[in-house]
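Work Package 3 (structural annotation) set out to generate three-dimensional models for the target panel prioritized at the project kickoff. During this period the team completed the workflow that converts sequence records into discrete structure tokens, so that structures can be stored uniformly alongside our sequence database. As a representative example, we reproduce one entry of 642 residues exactly as it appears in the project archive.
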Amino acid sequence: MLLSIRNADVSYGGELILTDVSFDIRPGEKIAVVGRNGCGKTTLLKLITGELSPQPRDSDDQPMIARTGDPTIGCLSQMSFTDENAALGDELKSVFAPVLALKARMEQLLEQMKNGGDEKLAEEYAAAEERFSYLGGYRYEKDYEQLYRRFGFSPEEESRPLSDFSGGQRTKIAFIKLLLSRPDILLLDEPTNHLDISTIAWLEGYIAEYPRAVVVVSHDRLFLDRVAETVYEIERGRIRRYIGNYSDYMRRKKEDYEQQLIRYNAQQKEKERLEALAERFIHKATKASMAKSKLKAVEHMELIEKPEEADLKAFHAMSRPKRESGRDVLICENLGVGYNDILARVSLNLQRGRKLGIIGGNGLGKSTFLKTVAGRLPKKSGKFTFGYAVDIGYFEQQMAAVGSTKSVLNEFWDEYPTLTETEVRNILGGFLFSGDDVFKTVSEISGGERVRLSLAKLLQTGPNLLLLDEPTNHMDIVGKEALEEMLADYEGTLIFVSHDRYLIRRLAQELLIFTPEGAEYFPFGYEEYERHYGKEKLQAADQLWKIDGDAGAKEEKKVPAEKKGNPGKERAKAERRRDRLEQLLAENDTQREALEAEISDPQNASDYVKLTELQGKLDELSAKADEYMEEWEELDRVLSSD
């Protein structure tokens, strides 16, 4: 176990955010943390980094945070720049200072050993070489080149000072520094925000192959499906652990709820039956003792709690436009879009009721296309025409950033002054603005709430063509799923730009793909795109991000040459050893589970000597399991290649 938290209550700003936290990070484990906005996910990350401490308890169950081997913890929010005037390349390479120092020391030790160095020098060299390998010393230059290129920086920008870069670019620079530093525990808070789909796909591969522990807070469901092997959910201040990826978590959560509800209802019925019997016979002398025994049975029941309904509040809206458009909704003929220069040319014919998803890299013209069609930008060339009776509703990213001193109520009401206050409040209630929420100023509410307010105002016009630019930005998972439901039911025509692949996969019936070579229309959905168009690109991209082995330092082990002799006998021997390794791994799992149960036992929570001893045994078993697994994989590969 790299890090273990027990009995932790965490307050922030005088408010209790998390209660009775139990959280474990194992070496190499990929963990997702999910929950609604404001539930305490970022607070949990601050607890892991040590920025926040659990508050003391009045009981004997005092909070505990145990770390094994002083693991390094890396978090994007903690990445800083040493010098604003430093060149980009120098700043990024500054993370390699420990690696370069070790390299210099190893070279020094080699020189000394050439002159007949003693055993201590050899031991120091071996230790330094092991650390050098762990830090990625044998491939740090390759890592630098791959990450630098993947995040879209050009060779010419290496010499530019940091002060020249925008806020978004500086965030990417900090991200590169974090990944290059290769911490033992990598903490990522919404890492896919503002990344295009190809970079997100690359990041998925990078994290899946990252040889150390990763904790991810994200609302990107497909990303969590492809990365996570453990999910912690925070709901109503409490945290619960699920094994598997995001889809596994959702399925298990639903099953647990249904099973507990069945057990709760069954117990309630039994309780009512016993109480009814007791009530019926309590006053009859011959049955009084039986009635009392029934009441005693009720008293001694271990009550099953009624499961809490999942926090699934969601907004909704009218899905039917005020009028129907003609069959042809939008026709583009070699439409050139851009600002100074043409970024892309678009040709398509979108028909009524269809849902067109727009994907592609940043800066290639996706939002520019929407702005051109919405009439916010002039076209550069070609032409576009709307069909009969097309009513446009346009949502752009900046709407969630605009503040106002008006209340939520007045912000909406000023646009629709003919409505009554009751009608306005009912509409806003459909977008989760209820009670005193409507009296908050627009500047006070969150980005996700501003998106909801903008959509409420937009959809009140009853458009039959919706143009949406990144509508799920700033939304939590529940909000995204609610928007998907609403847009899936929408009876008009939809064009939307998004990096949310779950949304695209769910809604898009056809795609417009922006690449450096231009815009390409694809008449099918996202899964079909991934199967055909995406496969080659992703396979080519694989070579950019895959890292080797434990720390990317060791070369791939070569399969030992087959010994001379009876091949059949050698194969049978290898198969027996593989079977034995499987037994050893199963026994190892059982022993580790027993130790983990002891470590988790509340009776041992304050016995630090015993916990240290148990953790030491657990670490030994984990190391042994790694050895068994490495040997098993080697044998399995040899046997499979025969």
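The two ends are 38 Å apart (CA to CA).
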